[in-house]
Design brief:
Distance between the termini: 63 Å
Shape: elongated
Radius of gyration: 34 Å
Helix content: over 70%
Strand order of the largest sheet: 2-1-5-4-3
Strand content: 5-15%
Oligomer: single chain
Largest sheet: 5 strands, antiparallel
Number of helices: 19
């Protein structure tokens, strides 16, 4: 028997993500899961929203009644017992303002005398007050009675002095508040439905790949080898299910065949040893030799179900953990920032984000060698340790400097895990299907981008910022456990396609105008607007406009949804048309122009709608440009011949990530000088200028390339 029986081998079929032969099963499972989950979630959401609507208005009325009675009792004490006329009261306006500040659902507090003269009015502008006054109930209303007045729920509290009504307190609750709370609940219900569907699909694809298609591919290989007379392989799998039983039965049959072959060989040796005539021994050997030539029961390997799809769920879980604080991270940083710093608050808010990105970027060049030496599984587990400690530390952070240190540690873990996931995909794909393998990687990241900020915003509203980081730490640990138990730890052979960062790659990057244009003037601005606008400015600006964290998370989720929805269509269009340069330009122009909507937000119905337009435009713009940027890099690398595509892409990726580092810094500087709205417009202008330079440099580079080709082939 072979000494390599327990080593892992890969087949080209496994590189397709392990889904090709089970596409029909997976499609039916996905359809069934979507139908069952969607119907169930819609029914639950409908009951929740309608029940909330029925319960909210009476609850608000009861609260208005409690507040009104408390205020009326204090005013009655002064007017009735102390004998001060209601017209002569002092300090009523500040008193009523404090009541309104501590009760956001109460819209106004009015005191009106029996002749309908307004004595004190807080909470309403004059034009709205003029609409409310004619419909206010009279002094004969019962205490606490409610009625609808100009769109407000009005509660009446007559205040008596000397047996007659001296003044009437009106407490108004806005119907807009009720509708706003219902809208937020609807957003949260939609978010939960979308996230639950995506999470279910992620786990379905993972389970089908790991527990069905992967083992079936190994079974197919074993049976194919058996048809060719090779019975040395066996399948390494521990699973107590139907597929596991099939694998166990096949392994048992192979062991039985090997045992029978060994018994046959033993019997042949016994017969040969018992012969005296050498010619008979030679005849026996001649008869048995075709059996030995045709069938082989040694030299096989332990076939482990292993494919690119196996990394998707642990990567999704970790990226989900990192995306949870996305919608509130700048606000959390602002709460811990020092008040006596020499630099502006806006730069302080962005510094931890910048250092996180920088730490992750600097770790990436080292990750490829670590994955070659120790294997992607162990590198992933090594990255989980600093990331989890960083999340726990952020949960316990007492000041700004603690927060910066813990975020840097999390950034190191993020960079290590990022490169480990890429290494796993590279190990389990080849040149024929590496794009399909990378779609596994990109799909997991974008699914987390959709799910994380929205759910993180809901968590922040319900349990607070700090506790959400604790959930992130738990998810990071779970991702490590999934990797430990589900991934093979065997170190594969050194990858010839490993990403390198040698001098040749950098010389080519900065000498070829096309690669320089796409990396510096398209990729960097694309990441700059992502980190500066979406990750930094959107949470701060929307919070400054009074939006809750759940709404902010839902808004950020729109980026991932729009990118994921449009990317396949845009990628096919770019491939068919072959106009990758133009597609990158259009994507950049769309992303930059979207930010300019904030210049005239009134045209779009307010600043919130302008931000939504900018986010969706950014998502569609990135859907256009991201895949075409890679296509240009690969085309340039092929043009230079000696430069490997992996090396060119590695250098391009490293330059691209510098945009993530610069984004919060640029946004902070702009916000400190022009405000959040001005910073959004400024980032849009920067992107538009860079895209203009990109198009100019591309045009010049094309002319130069055409002249060189003409000279070479003249």
């Amino acid at each position: 028997m072979s000494s390599h029986a327990d080593t892992a081998v890969s087949t080209p079929a496994s590189a397709k993500g392990g889904i090709t032969r089970t596409r029909g099963i997976l499609g039916r499972l996905v359809l069934l899961a979507v139908i069952v989950l969607l119907l169930g979630q819609i029914v639950v959401a409908w009951f929740a929203v309608t029940g909330f609507e029925r319960a909210l208005e009476p609850q608000l009325g009861q609260k208005a009644g409690a507040v009104g009675r408390a205020v009326a009792d204090q005013i009655a004490f002064v007017v009735d017992e102390l004998g001060i006329p209601s017209d002569d009261l002092v300090g009523v306006d500040p008193f009523l303002d404090k009541i309104l500040e501590s009760n956001e659902d109460i819209k106004y507090l009015l005191m009106v005398d029996p002749s309908s003269k307004v004595q004190f009015a807080r909470g309403l502008p004059p034009e709205t007050l003029a609409q409310v006054l004619p419909d206010l109930p009279g002094t004969d209303s019962e205490t606490g009675s409610r009625s609808e007045v100009a769109g407000f729920i009005n509660s009446v509290f007559p205040i008596e002095a000397d047996g007659r009504v001296a003044t009437v307190l009106h407490v108004g609750v806005s119907g807009e508040y009720v509708r706003g709370r219902l809208s937020e609940l609807l957003y949260e219900a939609i978010t939960v439905i979308v996230v639950s569907l995506l999470v279910t699909l992620e786990f379905l694809v993972f389970l089908v790949s790991v527990r069905v298609s992967g083992p079936l591919e190994r079974i197919e290989k074993t049976l194919t080898d058996g048809g060719q007379g090779r019975f040395g392989n066996h399948i390494v799998m521990r699973a107590r299910d139907e597929i596991g039983d099939l694998v166990s039965a096949l392994n048992q049959a192979l062991r039985g065949l090997r045992q029978r072959y060994e018994d046959f060989q033993f019997d042949v040796r016994e017969i040969k040893d018992a012969q005296i005539d050498r010619s008979i021994v030679e005849r026996i050997q001649t008869v048995c030799q075709p059996v030995e030539d045709r069938y082989s029961f040694s030299g096989g390997a332990g076939l482990r179900p292993r494919n690119a799809m196996q990394i998707r769920v642990p990567l999704f879980l970790f990226m989900f953990a990192e995306e949870l604080p996305r919608s509130f991270l700048p606000l959390f940083i602002a709460g811990l920032s020092p008040t006596d710093s020499a630099i502006s608050d806006e730069l302080l808010f962005g510094l931890p984000i910048t250092l996180f990105m920088l730490a992750g970027m600097l770790v990436v060049p080292l990750g490829g060698g670590l994955a070659d030496r120790f294997g992607a599984r162990w590198v992933f587990l090594a990255g989980v340790i600093p990331a989890t400690i960083g999340y726990f530390g952020t949960f316990l952070a007492q000041n700004y400097y603690d927060l910066v240190g813990w975020r840097i540690l999390s950034g190191i873990g993020y960079g290590i895990i990022f490169i480990a996931a890429q290494a796993w995909v590279a190990d389990n794909t080849d040149t024929r299907n590496r794009a399909q393998g990378m779609s596994v990687f990109v799909g997991g990241v974008f699914a987390a981008t959709i799910c994380g900020p929205s759910i993180g915003g809901i968590f922040a509203d319900r349990i607070g910022f700090e506790a959400t980081f604790l959930i992130s730490a738990g998810l990071a640990i779970v991702s490590g456990l999934v990797v430990y138990f589900m991934l093979d730890g065997t170190v594969r052979g050194r990858r010839t396609h490993r990403t390198t960062f040698g001098g040749q790659a950098w010389r080519t990057l900065f000498s070829d105008g096309r690669l320089l244009a796409v990396a510096v003037f398209a990729a960097i601005p694309g990441k700059l607007i992502l980190a500066g606008f979406l990750f930094y400015l959107v949470p701060l600006y929307l919070s400054d406009l009074g939006n809750r964290q759940s709404v902010i998370g839902w808004m950020i989720m729109l980026y991932g949804v729009s990118t994921l929805a449009f990317m396949p269509v845009m990628a096919r269009f770019a491939d068919r048309s072959g106009r990758h340069v133009a597609v990158v330009a259009v994507g950049g122009l769309l992303a930059g122009a979207g930010c300019l909507a904030s210049l005239s937000d009134a045209t779009f119905g307010g600043p919130l709608n302008a931000v939504v337009i900018a986010i969706v435009a950014l998502g569609i713009g990135h859907a256009l440009s991201l895949t075409s940027q890679l296509a240009i890099v690969q085309e340039v690398a092929s043009y230079h011949g000696g430069l490997g595509q992996a090396s060119a892409i590695g250098a391009y990726r490293l330059v691209e990530r510098s945009g993530m580092v610069l984004g919060p810094v640029v946004a902070g500087v702009l916000a400190a000088n022009f405000g959040y709205q001005g910073a959004i417009v400024g980032i849009g202008c920067i992107v538009l200028v860079c895209i203009a330079l990109y198009m100019l440099l591309m045009k010049l580079s094309r002319r130069r390339t055409a002249r060189m080709r003409k000279r070479w082939f003249a």
